[in-house]
């Protein structure tokens, strides 16, 4: 079997350009569209912000390892009314600092930290999946505009052809060689062509609006792209293997299994003893007692052994175990989904490339047939209806070619997306790649600070 890469290269080499719309001076490429979407898409930027928020779960979890420090102050004013000494006011104040350090909490903090780290890695893979989908959406919207532009041009050419046929039918009627029926048929076909052109223009505007939503800028100079070739797997088996090995939805599901496993251990830790140490330093002032100010300090060690907490701890452990089982099942679900997507995209790509070759053959034959029908009509062997039918065949074939070209492009990038090969690096996009690990490394060990990494 000829490889998909060779087929795509062959398609790009023989691709026709006669149906392309006039291009602007500054033409946008499909790679430029993907780069702008990667940088500008609000949904993708929101997902990045969500990952940064998830990163903060790690220092939050690590706070269980660290001391808790608090200051306290209190004051008391009392009045004593004695029959011998009369009324007398007493006041007392106390200030100090308390430091509490957890020594052992049944490994809850340790497992909470590990769960938070796994959650970060899972969300990082989910972000990568979002990036892939946005790149695919940008490529799809670009290909949609290229298709719609071609269809608009085809239908305009069809409209011009039908106007010529109407003029020819009217001219034949004027010299007595045609009939009023021929003129009416030409007028009906012309009106239908005008309606089709209006519909095509409306569809183009819709595709352009979707492009703006995804890419963030208005489309300029869109031209027909060829199917993707960079990183495209050579066979279906290779594509499936790639997808199952590296697709971020599968990796994210596996990290979520790890997260759920650590949450089970953390829940089980509530059944274990806990040890903490608390130190306190304070000063007492006032006129009660001997009236002398005094300093006080203490160190307290506390051992807590849970015996029964109303049954909540048992329910939480069982709940965590069920969640773990759910996450393991979801890994299998993601594997099946990725495999289905890979096989579907591969089949669509092969079908689209085959349709392109068939459509080009059909266009060539239909044009030759149309020219012959026109000549036969001119000598009275064919009718105007025959000419219009032949022209409709040409129109349909041209539009089907534009659709097949679009489908080949979308299926090729869809195959890259299904195998998780569609990325900034693999496609050589001219845009800075977002590095999620930089924010994580900056915050994972932070002890204090209100400002975010970017200064907010």
UniProtKB/TrEMBL annotation:
One of its GO terms (cellular component) is cell outer membrane. Pfam families: OEP. The keyword Chaperone does not apply. It comes from the Bacteria. This is TolC family outer membrane protein. Belongs to the outer membrane factor (OMF) (TC 1.B.17) family. InterPro entries: OMP_efflux (IPR003423), T1SS_OMP_TolC (IPR010130), TolC-like (IPR051906). Residues 1-27 form the signal peptide. Keywords: Cell outer membrane, Membrane, Signal, Transmembrane, Transmembrane beta strand, Transport. One of its GO terms (molecular function) is efflux transmembrane transporter activity. It is found in: Cell outer membrane.
